[in-house]
Fold:
Amino acid sequence: MKHFISILFCSLLANGLSAAELIDIGSRRELFVDKYLIERMEGVRLKLHTPQDAGKVFVLDRPWEGVGGYPTVIHNGGKFQFYYRGKTGMTNAGNPDETTCYAESADGIRWTKPNLGLFKVHGTRENNVILDNTFAPVCHNFAPFVDTRPGVPADQRYKALGGTFPVEWRKEPDSGGLMALVSPDGIRWKYLAKKPVIDKSLHPARNCDTCQSSVFWSQHEQCYVCYVRVWKNFGREKLRPGFTGDTRWIGRTTSPDFINWKPIEFVEYTPDAFPDQLYLPNTQPYVRAPHIYVAITARLSDHRLVITPEQAKALGVPKDAWRDTSDAIFMTSRGGLRYDRNFMSSFIRPGPGPRNWVTRCTFPALGIVQTGRDELSIYVERDNAQATEHIRRYTIRLDGFTSVHAPYQGGEFTTRPLRFKGDRLQINMSTSASGWIRCEVQDEGGTPFPGLALGSSSEMAGDEIARTVTWKTGSDLGRISEKPVRLRFVMKDADIYSFQFVKSTKQ
Structure:
């Protein structure tokens, strides 16, 4: 009992919630990426799952591609669109040599680089360039998205931010902030405003940086949201002169119209986590639960030497490009200035061989897309700054970033009081051959509803994205729809990734 109480209070305090507070989830899908909905856990834990390498999708082998960087993937209207920086060498940020390149796919697996003929680059218009050096330094960190705001004009259906901030310790071309661009199709772009819409005047410490920002229309918050990289000081020796902070951090700003943005504020990572160097924000609403923002971002291990100078030379890696390494980590947010970082371990590791242990390897693309009935795809840059540089695809099950996991010994958890709409409960679940899951539906006080007690629950085993929960009386929950309920799951050698209350199609 003491263990239950301790877990309960820790969970509630971590999420800033009281035990009596009722969460209205309606019919939205909820993922177990954090402990927001969980009141009590015994013998179970949140588990981070590992995406699987599905192979190389395309290489950066055109003369104007060279060293890539800051990719974005979009799925819109049956088409997958991939954006990435073209750069012929390890040049400074915002160098006029930079372009923005484009690839597309019908399935997210097989990609083509169309000859668009928009710009003459390296002596030819037969290329896949959508922004040439006349858009420098926007091309350095071009970050597009599909604007889902109701009423958005057709010629502004795609929006993007790009540009670099003045950096005192570098001597390079610089626009002084992030420029706003719009497009009807994601291919042909124009400026929305003549001046940067986000500049360093919006941050009191004036320490914004040049990485790829994450920007989107938030249905959940009813505004445009932008995550940018900033620097934060922890009282240690500064890594580089000219910055007011010494640790790469994430800042956040919002806008009602994509033009006028609020001052940038530092985010918080909860639980309190060691301040890793988080190189990219890489945050977007999850397509199946847009009130949850998923961040698969690059963690830079600055000045960490893994390969030797001899190995770097053999690979043809430019000078000093092997003096750090990186991997990808997983975080989530439910809006505001908070990230839930329940997992400190790597989400995607660098992998085997020295090629994967040079600077800025394992940088994930911005965007997570569904590429199969029960499959999500994540794209990652590999072999950075090498002749073999390419994009790889990684897969994970729908909603399958994390789960509530029970070992063979078994365990259980209970949610906080919820209010739902619908008449069926569906769960995304997986068990071993000997594992199982049972469900009990309780009232707000913890008493099982008649017919919905644990002893009446059907034992669920298998691997399904949308398993309907049943009891001896059936699956109909319409009689308790919109009433306060708690869900209690008892499970063995099993995972629950998400759940959703749905309306039956039966008339």
